[in-house]
Amino acid sequence: MEFKKLVCENCGSSDFSYQENIYTCRHCGTKYILANDGNYTIYNYNINFDDSMYYTNDYEEELPRTKGSGLRNLMFIFVGFIMLFSSCMFLANKGDVSSSVVPPKNEVKELLTKANHPKLFSSRADVKRFYEGQGRIVKLNSSEYDDKTVLCFETVPENIFTDSQDEDAKVRDIQIYLSNAQETSNIKIDEAVDIAETFMPWKIMDEYYELAETKCADYLSAANNKRYYDIRYYLKEKYQSKYMVHGYPGSITIRFEADTNNRVKNMRIAILLNQLGGRLDNNYKFTEWKPANWHQSPKEPPYLEKSWELLSASEHPRLLDNYDDMLTFGKKFIEEAVYFNKTSTNEKYGINGKKCLLSVESRSRADKSEYVFDIFLDLVKLRDEKQVSLAEAIALTKTFLPYDIMPEYYKLNFARKKVPTAKNLDGKISYEVVYDRIVSSENRAKARQLELPANIRITIQTEESGNVLGIWVNGYKYIPRNKSIYENATNEYGQRIQIRHEGRELGPYEESDDWNTVMPWQNPF
Asked: Are 307 and 358 a contacting pair, CB within 8 Å?
C-alpha cells in the first residue's frame, strides 16, 4: 500500500511521519498502525487532556539513539504487539467501538451541531469528555489558538475555593471561529443563529434571564466592512439582588462577527461581554435586527391580571391596619408584583421595580407595633393585560379605606379634580380627596392611643383618555416650609390664604401654580 493513500480520519490531512511501524499525523498527532488485513487502525493513546486542550505537536523530532535505546525498542515492540492484538479485536467487532478510538470524521458543521454538546455553564469535565480526540480543532483554556482552531472554551471556578483548572469549573466563554474551516465559509447569519442557539443552556436562561435587546452594528469605516449582530440577555429583576445565591452573572451576550454580505466569520457566547457601541466615541451605526427562528422563551404567566383579581377582593387589610397582616396578604402575590417596606427597621419583601404592582410602607407606634401608612397601586403595569377605568379604581380604593374608624375620627376636607393647563404637557388628570383628623374631647385618649395620622389622602391619576395610571392611599402630614409666624398658602381651591403658628400641622394645602386648573369634585368615598 502506498503511503500517499493514507488520509487522517481525524483532520483529513495526508501529511504523516513514520517511525517504528507507527504513522503519525503531522497535523493533529493521531497515530495509525497497519493491521494484518492491510487496513489502518486508529489509536489515540497519545492524545493528552492538559490545559492546551488536546494540543499535540505537529511532529516530534527523532532523538539521537543512546545506550538505553535498545531497551526502549524492546518495550516498543511489546507495546506494538499489544496494539496489533487490539486491532484484530477491533476489526472483528466493528460495532463495538472502544472509547479510546477517535470519533468519526469531524467535519466542522457536524462538530458544531452534534446533539447534547457542552453549552454555556457546562463543566470543564463535560467539555473534555465530549471532545476527546479532536486534536487542534477544540481547545480549553488555552492561548495557543491557530488557524485550525474552531472551538474555544474558557472556564471559571465554581466557587472561591476552586480554580479554572478544576473539573467542576464552569464554561463562561465559547468562541467559534467559522473562518478557520473552509466548509463553513458561506454560513449566513440565520444559519449562524441556529448554531449559536444549540450552545445556550435554555433551562437556565428561561428561569433566570430575559431578552434585553437584539441589534445590528456596522463599523463606519471605508476600509472596514465588519458587521456585528448582538443578542443580549439580562438577569430577571427578581434575581438581580441575589447574585451570590444563585451564582449566575448579570448579562449574557451572543455576538456574531460578519461582513456586509452577512457571511459570519466568528461567533462568541460569553458572560458580561461589553455592549457594542457602549462608549461615546464609538464608530458604529446601529439598525434594527430581529433574529430568525431564535428560541422563544415561555411567556410569563399573567400574574398581573391575577393580582388585580386578588386586589379587588374586599377581604384584605386596609390603611391603618396591622402591617404584618398586610405583609401576610402580600405573600399571596408573586414576588415580582409586590413590595413591602417596614420603615422603622428597613425590612423589605418583594421587588421595588418595573413589574411591581402593589407597594406598601409602614409607620411605627409608640408600642413598637407597625401599621399600614402608605399604599400605592401602579396600574401602568397592567396596560398590556387590562386598562382600569375611573369607576373600577374608585371601587378598588374603597376596599383599602378604614371605614370602621373614619366616621369617628376623620372629616372630609375637600374633594377636587386637577386638570392640566396648556403649560402642563404631562396631560395627567388628578382626583384628590383629603380627610382631616377631627377628634372630639371624649375620644382624644383613644385617638392618642391609636396614634392616627393627621390626614388620610387619596389620589387617583388618569390619562386624558380616562385610563387610570395609579392610586395612592396614605396617611399624610403637612408642615409649612417656612416656620415663621405667618406663611402664605392656598386652600383646596387654589385661593391664597394666610396660615398661622410656626411648625403646626395645618392640613394638606398646596402652593398655587398655572400648571393645573383646580375644580371641585363630588366625593365618591
From this structure: yes
